[in-house]
Design a protein that fits this description.
heterodimer, A: 159 residues, alpha+beta, DNA polymerase, domain 1, 2 domains, B: 284 residues, Uridine Diphospho-n-acetylenolpyruvylglucosamine Reductase, domain 3, 3 domains, five-stranded antiparallel beta sheet, four-stranded antiparallel beta sheet, 33% helix
Chain lengths: 159, 284
């Protein structure tokens, strides 16, 4: 069994550990870094629940090996709020709009939308719906999520 | 849903990568990982060795001379925004709007799409329209493969186990022409149930040249040459075209499975093909 030493910056903190070649980033974050906010749904890239931000890009953490994230900067759902606990506008908006029920997809929704709106917050509803077309939610029917994303986008555009 | 154990290599040069491919018995190349990783996780493939080519920056370049040269490791998100692609190959950017989701485009590569060769993949359809040349390298040399000879069978490209796809060379059409790309999938970003791409050159209302590629309907994406031959030289009249495409469309051996019937694919493709031709003609 081949193991590798990896080190990455996760939510601003250095995390290091030993990983097997086959360990994907999602498992590393959950099991070695203890960050269980990243949810693994399908583990073949379809559901979007495990989305995290690697070097600025939203990626499926189940479709990237942990060893490939060596020396990368990773942001998970735990790193979205400010250090003092102040919620990010996206998190606020999700709360205001009842955009989550069971919460399983929420981490992936927020990390995806965070990357998407960071690039450009001026987005139409169609663009937002397209952006989260790769994130499956089985509870909400998406209306609340889209409303939340629109509300957050508006706030972020004014920043 | 966890991959079986494998040995991981990350070569820093093309030479090293090709050496590994030559020496390792049961190796898989890992590029963007948006197809290989699911297959590993589901244990559809259980290679002894995985060779990660993400360190080969020289394969991630786009350059243009008389033709466009796209490094196999160029990410889909780069292609979707690159100004050179926008200028010379706008149909590729249009096709990319249908490829997966922005989170998979962050890592997915053009070489990966071509080598995975899903029957419904859009990027091979674009490469087909232009008769792209694919350059593959191995420790014993370089060879180039015409795109129409790339697909051997279902998800089986014409590439040896010791070879690596390095470059895609595309010669854009010259002169005034138009392009169209149409697709239908159940969810935005899912694999196409049917898709059609078209390039058209119309002069004095005559179809001087036309290229059509189809995806999702057969084992491999391919050029729809039977249909091109019928339409080339015809007067451009969409009602006439609708009549003339019937025969070639009826010859297709439509995929028929438990989720989507062949009859449904046939109906969809007809509509999409006509729309792609109209879209291309309107832009020419």
């Amino acid at each position: 069994m081949q193991e590798h030493e990896v080190q990455m910056q996760v939510n601003g903190k250095v995390v290091s550990g030993k990983v097997e070649s086959r360990t994907h980033l999602g498992d590393f974050l959950r099991q070695s870094a203890g960050l269980t906010g990243t949810h693994l749904g399908c583990e073949h890239g379809v559901c979007g629940a495990c989305t995290v931000i690697v070097d600025g890009d939203a990626v499926r953490s189940c479709l990237m090996l942990a060893v490939q994230a060596d020396n990368c900067e990773v942001t998970t759902i735990e790193g979205i709020a400010e250090a003092d606990g102040t919620l990010h506008p996206l998190q606020e908006a999700f709360r205001n709009n009842h955009a989550l029920q069971c919460g399983f997809c929420t981490a992936g929704m927020i990390t995806s939308l965070h990357a998407f709106l960071s690039e450009n917050p001026n987005r139409s509803e169609t663009e937002i719906r397209e952006a989260i077309s790769g994130n499956i939610c089985r509870c909400t029917g998406y209306q609340g999520i889209v409303s939340a994303a629109m509300e957050a986008a508006e706030k972020l555009a004014k920043r | 849903m966890k991959a079986s154990a494998f040995t991981y290599h990350k070569p820093n040069s093309l030479e090293d990568a090709l050496g590994l491919l030559q020496n390792e018995e049961d190796a898989k190349v890992l590029a963007g990982g948006q197809s290989l990783m699911p297959m590993l996780n589901m244990r559809f493939v259980q290679p002894e060795t995985v060779i990660d080519v993400n360190g080969l920056d020289e394969l991630a370049r786009i350059s243009v001379t008389d033709k466009l040269e796209i490094g196999a490791l160029t990410r889909q998100k780069t292609l979707a925004k690159d100004p050179t692609i926008k200028q010379h190959l706008p149909i590729m950017q249009e096709a990319l709007t249908w490829v997966g989701h922005f989170q998979t485009q962050s890592r997915g590569t053009i070489g990966g799409s071509l080598c995975h060769l899903d029957p419904a993949a859009e990027l091979p359809m674009v490469a087909l329209l232009y008769d792209a040349e694919l350059q593959v390298a191995s420790a014993s040399g370089i060879r180039s493969i015409p795109m129409q000879e790339w697909a051997l069978a279902y998800m089986m490209p014409s590439i040896g186990p010791d070879e690596l796809l390095t470059k895609i060379m595309i010669k854009p059409w010259q002169g005034s022409h138009g392009y169209g790309f149409q697709e239908f999938a159940r969810r935005h970003g899912d694999f196409a149930i049917a898709a059609a791409g078209c390039l058209i050159k119309i002069d004095n209302n005559i179809i001087e040249d036309i290229a059509i590629s189809i995806g999702g309907v057969e084992d491999v994406p391919r050029r729809f040459t039977e249909c091109e031959d019928v339409l080339r030289g015809m007067r451009y009249d969409i009602d006439d075209i609708k009549t003339h495409v019937r025969e070639p469309l009826s010859q297709i051996n439509y995929l028929d499975d438990s989720l989507v019937t062949g009859a449904y694919r046939r109906r969809l493709l007809k509509g999409l093909l006509i729309r792609a031709i109209e879209q291309a003609a309107n832009r020419s």
